[in-house]
Amino acid sequence: MNLGGEPERDDFGLPPVDIEIPDDARELARDVQAYYREQRALRRHLRHRRWGSPMARDGMVLPLLAACLVLALIAGTLLTVFTAGPGGDPARVPGSAGRTAGASVPPSAGASTGSRASAAAPRSPVPAVTAVAGRTSRLPNATIGLAGGQLRLGTVKASVLALVPAACGCAEAVRELIFQAHQADVPLFLVHASGRLPAAVEQVASRSGWSSLRVADDVRDVLGKTYNQTGLTAILVDSRGMVSLAHQLRPGLQLASKFEMLRAGTPAPSPPQ
Question: Which of 17-26, 81-90, 221-230, 243-252 has the lowest mean pLDDT?
């Protein structure tokens, strides 16, 4: 600076600078704070650019969102395919298909419906059917109650008597027994000794609509005592009056072929020695 207050020429060719040095450094506090604010703002801007630049570079945000949407759609489609059965119905728990098929086919349905239901149901071993030897090889000479009168057991031929225990929980097995007897065109008697059939079995019988299905009341339990009833028991009487037994019948029973032999008078299997 010269004495006249005009800036002198710098030997290095730099532009002239008018510098004013304050007497008190505290006068620069406001400028220092403004400088610090600018530095903090600059650091924040650089930090945001550092974290956001990988996503914003070359327009990556929209492709990434589109990829996530496609993956979500694929996952939803695969979940629908693997949790649905062949016909589009929800997949059933193993073992429930047989019960559903048995419950959906009434005894009055045609043979084709019955064959489809049998194919859908799980295959079960044929219940053991054994002939009865001795004096019990024929029905006892007794009568049991029947709607509108009495049934003489000695006159029963080519028929099936199903002994239904009280509170047996066997409605599904009774439903299949009715259906198979209806297929074979063999009369079926539901016999109970407890005053009336269990409610579930009575409902199955009432819905069958089959004229050859009758309900009998063996109040003295003649048949149960004679043939040692065990669970749901079927007494098969052929055209000659000979008796064979099948004890502890359960859902999945296969007795249609045995019922068809009753009308033909085919001898029952020989009793065990």
Answer: 81-90
**Domain span holding position 75:** 22-87
State whether 83 and 162 are in the same domain: no
181 and 256 belong to one structural domain: yes
The C-alpha atoms of residue 19 and residue 7 are separated, in whole angstroms, by 10
Half-sphere exposure of 214 (CA within 13 A, CB side): 20
pLDDT surpassing 70 at residue 24: yes
For residues 98 and 120, the answer to whether their CB atoms sit within 8 Å is yes
Mean pLDDT of the chain, nearest integer:
76
Residue partners of 100: CB distance under 8 A and separation at least 6: 92
Residue 196 sits in a domain of what CATH number?
3.40.30.10
What is residue 87's DSSP assignment? T
Tokens 């530095």 locate to 39
Query: What is the rounded distance in angstroms from the CA atom of residue 17 to the CA atom of residue 12?
Result: 13
Q: Is residue 172 located within the same domain as residue 254?
A: yes
- Give the chain's domain count: 2
